[in-house]
Amino acid sequence: MKDLITVIAKALVDHPEEVRVTAKEDDRSITYEVSVHPEDIGKVIGKQGRIAKALRTVVASAAVKETKRVSVDILS
Hints:
3-stranded mixed sheet; 3 helices
């Protein structure tokens, strides 16, 4: 899952070397935090959050097999 998010995020930004994805896991959920260069934050979020919503939809679809809830947070 982490690799999927990394590939998608790197394709969207101008500074792909600064994309970092970390996972925080607890009993019921896994949260993936995507950190990008400050200039690229708008490219990952998109107009009115459309790209971020699409990224979350793809991750949710890929996480159907997981027994835990999966979410994606975008950090600058």
